[in-house]
Amino acid sequence: MMPYLELVGLRRQHSSNQPPAVNNLTLSASRGEVVALLGPSGSGKTTVLRLVAGLDEPEAGSVSVGGRDLRGVAPERRGIALMFQRPLLFPHLTVLDNIAFAPRMAGVSRRDARVKAARFLELVQLDDYGDRSVRSLSGGQEQRVALARALAAEPDVLLLDEPFSALDPSLRADMHQLLAEVRAVIEPTILMVTHDQTEATSVADSIALLVDGHLEQHDTPDRLYTQPASLVVSRFLGGVNEFPGVVSAGVHISDIGHLLVPDAADGGAVLVIRQEAVFLASPTDTRADAVGEVLSVESAGPRRTVTVRCDGIRVVAEVGPAQSARVGDSVGVLLPVSQRHVVPVPMSPAPVPATR
Question: What pTM, to 2 d.p., does this model score?
Answer without folding.
Answer: 0.89
